[in-house]
Amino acid sequence: MALACVGNIVAGPDDVTQQMLDCGVLPVLGAIVNNDDGEIHRQVAWALANIAAGSEAQIAAVLAADTVPWLVRSLQDNEFAVVREAAWALCNAVLGGTDDHVRRIVAAGAMPWLFPLLECDEMNTVLVVIEALENILRVGGLDEVNAYAEMIVQGGWLPCIRAAQDHPHQLVYKCAQAIMLVYFYDEDGGAVQVDPN
């Protein structure tokens, strides 16, 4: 019950969330993630998702608390409710954080575990994941070679984005189409060849 209250409080305005951070909520959340209870994992991930929906400074606090490795492991959980909340936490950080935050989340191994969520039945989850992937690719595109686009091709995840172009929700398929056009097709409309070696 107390954990649910924490999640509700940090779902509020940024100033309230900041007060919770100032009171030391992140170390407390970090201390209870070793519990084997799936519901506790879900609630911790949900609280982290709510904090990561805040300001860049709040996202930085989530990353500084070393929660990203736990969130990435949670993406591999057997309980979909835990996976969903962990994905929301990471995606919120990718969408609201700095380019450095995005790079740190990708470096922690989050990206491969997001692709299966493009096929889930929860439209809002699919949408936040495809938008996060688009932002990851945008950050990768700031470099001379987009290593994140190469990771997608080499990892065999490009078909997931191609399939999302046929999603029934307009925002999802438009985002997937934009990703394909911007990052995986050349100027003549042909598929970009990424060296798999």
Question: How is this structure best described in words?
Answer:
The chain is mainly α and 197 residues long. It has two domains: 1-107, Alpha Horseshoe (Leucine-rich Repeat Variant), CATH 1.25.10.10; 110-197, Leucine-rich Repeat Variant. It is built from 13 helices and no strands. The protein has helices at residues 2-9, 14-22, 25-32, 38-52, 56-64, 68-74, 80-96, 99-107, 111-114, 123-140, 147-154, 158-164, 170-183. The N and C termini lie far apart (50 Å).
Largest sheet, if any? none
Domain module tally = 2
Radius of gyration: 17 Å
CATH fold annotation of the largest domain: Leucine-rich Repeat Variant
The tally of beta strands, per DSSP, is: 0
Give the low-confidence spans. Answer: none
**Count of helical stretches:** 13
Q: So, the CATH homologous superfamily of the largest domain?
A: Leucine-rich Repeat Variant
Mean pLDDT: 90
Question: What topology emerges from the helices and strands here?
Answer:
Blueprint: H1 2-9, H2 14-22, H3 25-32, H4 38-52, H5 56-64, H6 68-74, H7 80-96, H8 99-107, H9 111-114, H10 123-140, H11 147-154, H12 158-164, H13 170-183
